[in-house]
Structure formats: structure tokens, C-alpha cells
Amino acid sequence: MNRSFEENLALYAKLTVQEGLGLARGQELIVSAEIDQAPLVRLIAAEAYRAGAKNVEVLWMDPEIVVTRFREGSDEAIQYTANWLIDGVTRAFRENAARLGILSSDPGLLASVDPQRVADSSRAQSLARKEMSDLIVSGHMNWCIVGAASPAWARTVFPSLPEEEAVARLWEAIFQTSRVLEPDPIAAWRAHCRNVTARKDWLNGLRLDALHFKGPGTDLRVGLVENHRWVGVQSTCKNGITCSPNIPTEEIFTMPHRARVDGTVRSSKPLSVRGQIVDGITVEFREGLAVDVKADKGLETLEKLLSSDEAAKRLGEVALVPNSGKVGETGVLFYNSLFDENAASHIAFGASYGENLGGYEEMAETERKQAGANDSIIHVDWMIGSGDMDVDGILGDGSTHAVMRGGEWVQLS
Fold first, then answer.
1. Which 3 state secondary structure label does DSSP give 89?
2. What is the percent of the chain with per-residue pLDDT over 90, rounded to a whole number?
3. In which region does residue 275 sit, left (phi positive, over 0), alpha (psi from -120 to 50) or beta (all else)?
4. pLDDT tens by residue, 47-102
5. Where do the H-state alpha helices sit in 105-220?
6. What is the pLDDT of residue 215?
7. Backbone angles phi, psi at 25, to 5 degrees
8. Residue 280 above 90 pLDDT?
9. pLDDT exceeds cutoff 70 at 413
10. Strand, helix or coil at 150?
């Protein structure tokens, strides 16, 4: 189908509002985006108002000002948090405002900045935004994260192409992975949701005790919490709205037990985190704790990340993703976790998601930890899957059940 870029962008905005957010009449929408994404944001605002939004509020970010703060700002400036703004947004979320994040940053935006300054700023921001983050990840209200091409990001992904062509190629990949290039993007997205849900239901029916990942540089056993739930593609929030928190998404994820992860694992793709690139990660886990951490590139950034708090060196998520999904199909390395995590199975350092543990909301904090949940101010996904990765499910009696072979799902049974 030969649609113009403008037509595809409008369809992307429609998909984001209708299927990503599931925006309800009378809701407020808070959007965070970089200033060069104004054309997309305007289309999203129009779709939101057509859906009955009572207000669309945009929090703009300029990457140049972000870099300037790190280069020119004092230590006080680096660690300052605008609590007046954070408090207002948190209140809006408490009062049922929907949240949309549009990601378009340069993956190496802060590559020349001292990792310690980045770590200090990130820690301060994470602590200040804790309640806000908890409302989002607990499903208090509907939310969604999508991507948008920018020149700086496109140059990283397609370094050999002229900038204009690189941006066009990146937009095409974004549209492809979100199913915007299909004849009916909304129908295609809904069909995708049905397919992922069927696989998710299969995994939940297995009632696995653990997963065993085996591939190049990886021999890892990930124990799962006893009452774990596999979640994927859609979430029904506490306000009754069903949304797709990530577009694109191919993953089905659950909660590892914070003390039952053992073995060695190696990353299969670079990780863009805090505006810096980390690659060639190798980690040894013992009783849930990362006891030996290495990286071919960006080790200091990774070490700063894992020193964020006591739980940062433990896992909060394990996710299964087939290589043949729409993201993997592009063959593009995006240097952006929203996309790359949906091209490969992955694990995440840091916080668990409550939706992955039955009864989580009724538990006290000590009970959650005893059940195996991990509470941290960070949550960072990194990719471990590949076409050479096999995954077995381990049942409570020690028997095994094939889950993935060569990076692809086994047939449903």
C-alpha cells in the first residue's frame, strides 16, 4: 500500500491514542516529548480531543539543554529535582490522567559526560519520581510509550546514510514494527494482541518453576516467583481501561525470584542507558545477585547503574521474545530499548512489576520481598536472546518443557 509519510504519521497517532492509550472520554492526557516531535504531538493531541479528552498537556524537552546542564551546571544543578513539577504530574496521575511518552533521543546523547554526574542526576530523579513511577508501573492509570525518529537517533542507527534518508528509513522501521504499514493498522494491531495473548495464556497454564536459557556465552537458570503471572501486549488498568503500554511490543514477561537466579549470561545487543552505550555485557549470578559484571564498552556506566541501591544487582523481569517478530524482521539495531527489547528475549536489573505476582497489591512490603519481588529505583532491560538461544521451562517436579528453540516459540500444545 502506497501511503504518504503524512498519512502514515496520522495513522500512527490514531493507533497510539486508540490502542496504545485506550484513551477514555473525559480523561486528561500528559505527553512528554522532544521539541522536534511537534508534528506528531499535534496529531496525537487532535486524536485525543476527538476521543473526548478534556485536556492535553505537553511536557517538552530539548536535548541540547539537557547536555548543557551536564556540561555547565554545578553539582547542585545536576542533583536538583523540580519537585513542584513532579508533584503536579503525580497528582494528575493520581486523578486518572493518562500518560504518553514519545522516545526519540540520541542514544549517545551523554556519551561525553562523566558517568558519575549522570549517575548522580539519575539517582536524584529516580528518588524524586518514585511515587509517579509506582503509579505507572502498578497500572493505576493507562499509559503508553512510543518511538519517533529524530536526526540524531537516525544517524546512530544508519551511520552510512545521508541524514534525510536515515530519518526516513528509521520512520519506516517504526511504522513497520507498529503495524502502521498494514492496510488496516488498528485491525492488524488487534490481531497481534490476540496472538500474543494466546501464547501468554499457554505460558500461564504451564505453571513453571524456572526458565533455563542456553546459548553462546549464556547458561542461566531463572527461578520464578511461586504465584507468577505472564503478562504481555495489553494491560487492564485499575481504572478499567485496557491499553498497550508499549508500541511496538512482542514480549511476554514475568517476575523472576530475586534470590533464585544462577549462572552466566551475555548480552546479545548493545544497551542505550542514561544517554550512554553499554555493550558486550557478561554477568554471573549467584543466588539472585550479580557477583561478577563485565562489559566490553561502558562498564563504568553499568557499574554506576548497579550501585543505585541494594536491589539494583538483582533481576526484576524476565521476558521472552521471538526473533521473527516485527522488530526482529526489520534487521535493524535501534539502540533503543523500546525497540531492541522487542527483538530479543531479555532480562531487567532492578524493580519488579506488581502485575506479575498474584496478590501483590494486598501484600505488605516485607511479604513482597519474601515472595521474591525486587524493589529498586531502577528498571533496565538488556537483551540476551538470539537465533542461537534455547529456552526450557522447568516444572516443579524438575521435568522440562521446551519453550523456545533457536530464538523461536515452540508450537503451542
1. helix
2. 95
3. left
4. 999 999 999 999 999 999 999 999 999 999 999 999 999 999 999 999 999 999 99
5. 115-128, 130-137, 151-157, 163-177, 185-206
6. 96
7. -60, 135
8. yes
9. no
10. coil
Are the C-beta atoms of 264 and 282 separated by less than 8 Å? yes
Are 96 and 21 in contact by the 8 Å Cβ rule? The answer is no
CA distances from 298 to 45, 195, 273, 280 (A): 38, 37, 10, 9
Q: What is the pLDDT of residues 325-355, one digit of tens each?
A: 999 999 999 999 899 999 999 999 999 999 9
Coil, strand, or helix at residue 337?
Answer: helix
Cell of 407: 530464538
H-helix segments, 231-357 = 299-306, 326-330, 337-340
Q: Among candidates 172, 323, 353, which has minimal Cα distance to 254?
A: 353
Radius of gyration of the chain (CA): 20
- What pairing do the DSSP bridges indicate for beta strands 218-224 and 256-266? antiparallel
Is the C-alpha dihedral spanning 401, 405, 409, 413 positive or negative?
A: negative
Region of 391 on the Ramachandran plot (φ > 0 left; ψ -120 to 50 alpha; else beta): beta
pTM value is 0.92
Give the three cell numbers for residue 278. 553499554
Would you give the DSSP letter of residue 36? G
Residue 100's nearest CA partner among 154, 70, 59, 68 is: 59
CB atoms within 10 A of CB 55: 13
Mean pLDDT in residue range 241-268: 97
Question: What residues form DSSP beta bridges with 211?
Answer: 222, 393
In this structure, the dihedral spanned by the alpha carbons of residues 54, 235, 319 and 178, taken in order and rounded to 10 degrees, is -60
Peptide bond into 216 cis (omega under 30): no
- Sign, CA dihedral 139-244-38-106, equals positive
Q: What is the pLDDT of residue 146?
A: 98
From CA 334, how far away is CA 176, in angstroms rounded?
13
DSSP E strands in 287-406: the ranges are 289-294, 315-320, 346-350, 379-383, 390-394, 400-405
**What CA–CA distance (Å, rounded) separates 246 from 102?**
11
Average pLDDT over residues 400-412: 94
For residue 284, what pLDDT is reported? 98
- Lookup result for grid cell 539517582: 123
Q: Phi/psi at 31 (nearest 5 deg)?
A: -115, 135
Residues 6+ apart with CB under 8 A from 113: 67, 70, 71, 275, 276
CA 140/CA 100 separation, integer angstroms: 14
Rounded distance, CA 215 to CA 268, Å? 10
